[in-house]
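DM from R.C. (forwarded with permission)

"hey, sorry to bug you on a friday — could you get me a structure for this? deadline for the figure draft is monday and I only need the backbone to look sensible"
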Amino acid sequence: MKTLLGALLLSAAFVATPARAASDVVTIYSADGLHDGKGSWFETEFNAFTKATGVKVQYIEGGSGGVVERVAKEKSNPQADVLVTLPPFIQRAEAEGLLQKFTPEAASVIAGGDDNYQPLVNNYMNFIYNAATLTEAPKSYADLLDAKFKGKIQYSTPGQAGDGTAVMLQVIHSFGGRDAAFDYLKKLQDNNVGPSASTGKLTALVNKSELYVANGDLQMNLSQMSDNPNIRVFWPAGPNGERSAMPLPYYVALVAGAPDSDNGKKLIEFLLSKDAQASVSSLAIGEPVRKDVTPTDANYVKLHETMKGVTLWSPDWAQVLKDLPADVARWRQATGS
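My reply, with the result:
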């Protein structure tokens, strides 16, 4: 199934162009978030992987839907070995035969994977606001309709960005159904700046007060706070008064027809190893996926403190994938995007 993404974004969405595979190079296409800032989790683990194996990591970054779209376009001549992306795009990649079966050793201590992919870092959707401009976080979705937010709200595009798709799904959940949700998103459009291919790029705009509110995900936004001191995370309440959030894990998979599948497997094993997972919270401010890893660092504590009072819920990603074309079409109709 094709997403409702134009191919126009693909060449611009990535930070590099992959070279042909070599025995000492492994290529990873990844959604943004885990390589943010100096000393990021990806940077640290890639360096450690190269030191341990002699294999260099070529890192190509894009939006959650964009990296899958690129793998799809390269299906007849694959360039990537490893894919990291968010749901429902990892499920789309599996459905389109873009992944090859691989069960890493850590699979027995990880929940939520299957024969083709495994969770890599646990994560959750959220919103961010500028704390230098707003004295407190907006308390509800209704608050975001206030005229003071005119031209000061932006969220990434559903069907194109994983975090943006999560916004659409979260609003449907919070409002108890599609009719009320899309009616709300139509009203919100009066304050919305417009589509954004990337969620990560919105953080700096909020930090500079060009935006007051944007969407994001908890791991990415907490890790961005050192460079963007004005941002804070929040979860607005729905009409029933509940603040809720959905898990939005990063998933990792081996690409079908990978030019260097052996090194791809090695990299996946390395990133899911106990040592690598033990540093997920301290370096990425995310949650490790291994059941046998329980961090005690300050970032892990901060992550859980931040989510106090937030109810977690999990969508049926297989159903989300089936419904996505119709939902995105309805979102476009409601918002005029």
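R.C.: lifesaver. The CA atoms of residues 241 and 266 lie 46 Å apart.
me: no worries. The chain has two domains: 7-123+249-304, 125-247+309-335.
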